[in-house]
Amino acid sequence: MRLGTLSLLVRPRTALVAIALVGVALLAGAAALTVGSLPVPFGAVPGAVLGIADDATVVRAVQGVRLPRVLSALGAGAALGISGAVFQSLSRNALGSPDVIGFTTGAATGALVQIVLFGAQPTQVALGTVVGGAVAAGLVLLLARRGGGMAGRQMILVGIGIGAIASAINGLLLVRGTIDASSQANLWLSGSLDARQWGHALPVLLGVAVVLPVVLLLSRRATLMELGDDVAEQLGVRTERTRLALVICAVALAALATAAVGPIAFVALAAPQLVRRLMRADAPPVVGGAAMGAVLLVIADLATQLLPVTFAVPVGRMTGVIGGLYLLWLLLPGRGSAEGRGWR
């Protein structure tokens, strides 16, 4: 498709998979709006969302409680899916997701500093996650540089080390805090969508809306960089500038998602991998990763609400269990190499 000097390449399979995933995410979100102590018929969901339903109680329950929760899940899942796609492309490794290489843990450290030491409000906690994620990313990029470039395996190993240090600091902060602050921090660390408000949902949704077009513009360069920095530079890609821009975008999205719902495990790892298998495309699955991440997080949250238990299960624990099983499956012999082009 051409428009003047601009051209757009559309792959039918990629577009159809992305559209289908967006539809599944919206349907899962609508289903989540019906679940709760006040049953809401599925057919009444559109009217409740628009505020034109006959029952005012249903409108208040949907708009004031359930809709912010669902939008937080959609936004955070999309942000993690994009972030995972970017980091896996840059590292050329299936394990190159922000939760594995320490960025999410670093963002959690910034949040815990605000919660435990300063008793901060959600806005300050969100700012702390962004700062913590940026510091962790800066340390990983600085230490992973080797010979003027950056190897994907080196980035992952350094990130795991930084994540381990950040995790130890998080444990010390929990011991240092008061009982109330430590309890609040421990609940936040589990990753939860309970009591989400519009202040949680709107920043991450806005972040996705702003950052997604930037990542899409850089995705072609990222595809060329997967061939190696030398090859990409010969094709006219400024690798260092492109890598820095992509890392900033990915870290910002991971931090915003962490600020909105807490540390969520394995969504950023699994979403791009699943989409690559469905789309069979070479380019980083940016839009598809966002849609798959939203699907995974919304369905995981819906599953926690439907479990036949008498206590609330944090969605972060649910994604951790599912993601751990997926990681074991990914590492089984015969699933392909996790390094280079074989990891797709």
From TrEMBL:
- Show the Gene3D superfamilies listed in the entry: ABC transporter involved in vitamin B12 uptake, BtuC
Its keywords, alphabetically, are: Cell membrane, Membrane, Transmembrane, Transmembrane helix, Transport
- Coarse class of the primary localization is membrane
Name the SUPFAM superfamilies for this protein.
Answer: ABC transporter involved in vitamin B12 uptake, BtuC
What Gene Ontology terms describe where this protein resides (cellular component)? plasma membrane
Keyword Membrane appears in the UniProt entry: yes
- Its domain of life reads Bacteria
Subcellular location per the Swiss-Prot or TrEMBL entry: Cell membrane
What membrane topology is annotated for this entry?
Answer: Multi-pass membrane protein
Task: Name any Gene Ontology BP term.
Answer: siderophore-iron import into cell
Q: Which GO terms describe its molecular function?
A: transmembrane transporter activity
Name the residues that span the membrane: 70-88, 100-119, 125-144, 156-179, 199-218, 244-271, 283-303, 315-332
Q: Which family does it belong to?
A: Belongs to the binding-protein-dependent transport system permease family. FecCD subfamily.
Q: List the PANTHER family hit by this protein, alphabetically.
A: FERRIC ENTEROBACTIN TRANSPORT SYSTEM PERMEASE PROTEIN (PTHR30472), FERRIC ENTEROBACTIN TRANSPORT SYSTEM PERMEASE PROTEIN FEPG (PTHR30472:SF24)
Question: What name has this protein been given in UniProt?
Answer: Fe(3+)-siderophore ABC transporter permease
